[in-house]
Design brief:
about 30% helix, alpha/beta, Rossmann fold, six-stranded parallel β-sheet, nine-stranded mixed β-sheet
């Protein structure tokens, strides 16, 4: 099949928006109904982002045997990190602009994977959902509180399966946490300590502004890479994962790892949105890049009979939290990401959390790692009274594709993941303004800091990209 590459210069036009409107709301339900009527068929999947984490998603979704890869899209088709996926699918149509992909092959696509930088999740997911297409979106869902709000509304409006990519929601931690809450083992939690103290890309960086202009690589569609973001000159320090360092593009350690560490506690303790987020400690505060270290206190109100919860987040290599001695020595942790030199540390405390409940304390890691009761003597005492934890019926990628087919429900749907991502977005705002925020969950407004409240909406979209906020 032919290769299709095109920049975005001619895409913003009236015909494109007419196509979105007519194909979107009018046909979304019809497409989903027609597809659900043939549950034995594979899901026709378009993949946006085919390098780095996006490549992992493509491989994992394809490995389920439940998907046909019908289109691939990446803003830099010539980059080394895209070559493996291109070789795996040599005959699949290729695009550098997702809008061109939808305009050309929209009728052939049932679902879309979104494995691109955080700030560009939103427009791809919104266009897909507006056309009745199911969405697998990497975490965090969006780059701003407002984007996440609109994504939750679109999931409901267009009646699609939408899964956020926090894999722990389909692994042992998810089912254990739920079973222990249901059985009253985890109850009346008042305090959670969450931490991620490994090296991050911005550690050691000292910037006084944006990076200087460099020549754009011939293989890169820089305009499409920027998507809704405000104009920036190209610099290699913004791409290939380095976007995580910058407020304009990423969500820092909290946005990257928070969904893997606090997600099950957030869901099964019904934490919702906090009423306060306090920037207790910020080292190396910058208006451009994330702090070298952060301690953030999230205060969640009482929910029914459940007491208020204070969740304290620690990041930064030398900002380890106080932990109970009963946790024991540091242990090898395969969940640790590589350090900036590419080497994976072994004998180092990995990302994790301590949960303080009524009568019991729990220690856990990230992703699907299960909780253990501490101290060990208490765990042995409780062993015979712990409930049976069911096995997962499907991994996270299978769960999404089966949900597309109407056979399962997304475990980390946008409705579930959205409030978690919004809570983390509030934490990022506290990092940006270096202040304590008072938040009203009812009105969804920051009530004590106007500049912070303005950041709930995120940066205004570039000219020509406003339509994604109206879908």
């Amino acid at each position: 099949m032919p290769t299709v590459t095109q920049t975005s210069q001619a895409i913003h036009r009236r015909a494109f928006m007419q196509h979105v409107v007519t194909v979107g709301a009018a046909t979304a339900l019809a497409q989903r109904t027609a597809f659900s009527a043939t549950p034995s068929e594979r899901v026709n999947l378009a993949c946006c982002g085919i390098g780095h984490r996006g490549a992992d998603d493509v491989r994992s979704l394809h490995a389920t045997g439940l998907a046909n890869i019908v289109a691939i899209c990446d803003t830099d088709m010539g980059a080394p990190h895209t070559q493996e996926i291109l070789k795996l699918f040599p005959d699949v149509p290729r695009f550098q602009d997702f809008r061109r992909m939808f305009d050309t092959l929209g009728r052939e696509i049932d679902a879309v994977s979104v494995g691109v930088p955080d700030f560009s999740h939103f427009p791809i997911a919104m266009l897909a959902m507006s056309q009745g297409k199911h969405v697998y979106c990497e975490k965090p869902m969006g780059h701003s509180f407002r984007q996440i709000e609109l994504m939750m509304a679109a999931e409901k409006k267009y009646n699609v399966a939408a899964q956020m990519g926090n894999q722990g929601h389909s692994e042992a931690n998810y089912f254990q946490f739920k079973a222990w809450v249901d059985a009253g083992i985890i109850k009346n939690v008042t305090k959670i300590t969450a931490f991620m103290n490994s090296s991050r890309r911005w550690h050691g960086m000292d910037v006084s502004g944006y990076l200087p202009k460099q020549p754009i690589p011939d293989t890169l569609d820089w305009d499409s890479w920027l998507s809704t973001a405000q104009p920036h000159d190209y610099n290699q320090g913004y791409v290939n994962g380095d976007w995580r360092s910058w407020f304009d593009f990423g969500n820092g350690a909290l946005g990257d790892w928070g969904a893997h560490i606090i997600d099950t506690a957030h869901e099964f303790l019904n934490l919702g949105l906090p009423t306060e987020v306090d920037a207790v400690k910020l080292e190396g505060h910058s208006p451009y890049i994330f702090p070298q270290a952060s301690t953030l206190a999230f205060r969640f109100p009482a929910r029914g009979t459940q007491p208020p919860v204070e969740l304290t987040w620690y990041d930064g290599q030398n900002n380890a939290p106080p932990l109970p001695e009963s946790i024991g020595e540091d242990e090898e942790n395969t969940d640790l990401p590589p350090d900036t030199d590419g080497k994976r540390p072994r004998k180092k405390r990995g990302p994790g959390k301590v949960i303080y409940g009524e009568g019991l304390t729990f220690f856990g890691g990230s992703h699907g790692r299960t909780l253990r009761i501490i101290p060990e003597e208490k765990a042995r005492e409780m062993a015979s009274s712990l409930p049976t934890v069911p096995d997962s019926p499907s991994n996270h990628f299978e769960n999404f594709l089966l949900a597309c087919k109407g056979e399962e429900t997304c475990r980390s749907s946008f409705a579930v993941a959205g409030p978690l991502c919004q809570a983390m977005a509030l934490g990022v705002i506290a990092q940006r303004v270096n202040a304590k925020l008072a938040f009203d969950p009812a009105t969804k407004q920051i009530t004590n800091h106007q500049a912070a409240n303005d950041l709930l909406a995120g940066a205004p979209p570039r000219k020509g990209w406003e339509e994604f906020y109206r879908m």
